[in-house]
Amino acid sequence: MRARRKPAADRDLPRLWAPWRSAFLSRPRQRRCIFCAAARGRSARTSRLVDREGSAFAILNRYPYNNGHLLVSPSRHIGTLLALRAEEWTDMLRLSQRLMRILTVRLHPHGFNLGVNLGKVGGAGIPGHLHLHIVPRWQGDTNFMPTVSGTKVISQSLDELYRQLSGSSRRAPGRRRGRPARRPRSRR
C-alpha cells in the first residue's frame, strides 16, 4: 500500500519554528498553581516575585518572549476577567504602570506589548489563574536568529534581571504595598 501524500496546500504552507518554547511545552504539568505558590512563597527570590501592589503581584516569566517579560496577577486564584474584583483590577493596572516605568528606566525599551490570554483555547498556558503579560519591545527585536538558526536570543539572565528589578524599590519585593487596611464603617 502506498503512503498518501499530503495535499499540496499543506506542503506549501510556511512554517514558523519556535524551539525556545519547547522547554515550556514539554515539561511535566505542575499540579500546583505557580501564581498561588509565588503569592504565598516565603522567598521572593525563589519565586522571582519582583513587586506587589495591594491584592496583586508580579513575577518574572521563566519562559520569556523577550527580556523583561513580566506576569502581573491577582493574589486570589481566579481564571477569568469577569470574576476579577474592581480593586484587584485596579491593583494590577497600578502595578503594571509602576513596572513599565521601572522597565523603561532600567531596560530602555522602545515600546511594550500588554496582553491577557483567557482560557486554554485563548492561549493561556496557566488558564486557572488570570495574569497580564508585560513584554518590553525594541526596534528590530524580531531579527533573523529565530528564522535562520531556530534560536531566540534573550540578552539577560533571569537572575540578573531579578536583581535589577527587585532593587528598584526601597522595600523588599515580598512586602505588600498599597492601600492601608480598611477600617470598619461605624453605624450611625
Strand order in space, largest sheet: 1-2-3-5-4
Q: How many separate domains?
A: 1
Number of helices: 7
Unreliable residue stretches: 170-176, 178-188
Shape annotation? globular
Rg from C-alpha positions? 20 Å
> Percent helix among the residues?
25-40%
Order of helices and strands: HHHHEEEHEEHH
Q: Structural class of the secondary structure composition? A: alpha+beta
CATH topology: HIT family, subunit A
Account of the protein in words:
This protein has 188 residues and is α+β, with helices and mostly antiparallel strands. It has one domain (30-166): 2-Layer Sandwich (HIT family, subunit A). The chain is 30% helix and 14% strand. It is built from seven helices and five strands. It has helices at residues 8-11, 22-26, 34-40, 44-47, 86-107, 144-149, 158-166; strands at 49-53, 56-60, 70-74, 111-115, 132-137. The protein has a five-stranded antiparallel beta sheet with strand order 1-2-3-5-4, sandwiched between helices. Strand 1 (49-53) and strand 2 form a beta hairpin.
